[in-house]
Fold this sequence. Notes:
Number of helices: 4
Structural class: mainly alpha
Radius of gyration: 19 Å
Shape: elongated
Helix content: over 70%
Largest sheet: none
Oligomer: single chain
Amino acid sequence: xxxxxxxxxxxxxxxxxxxxxxxxxxxxxxxxxxxxxxxxxxxxxxxxxxxxxxxxxxxxxxxxxxxxxxxxxxxxxxxxxxxxxxxx
Length: 88
């Protein structure tokens, strides 16, 4: 039981580090794309406002939500492995 708890704690910490890293990377890439899009569009209005509006839209996007798979997939796999080993 202690080994499982240790696995889950270490797994949670590693997943959190991966989630934070992916989150920052994805947001930075989106910011770069928005800046490039602003320049290609002929620089309409204020760049910072354009980028902030784009990032606000990004916060509700599917891509942002898919990053949560960093937690869901590994812990689901662990649960399935435990289930199949013990009950089949």
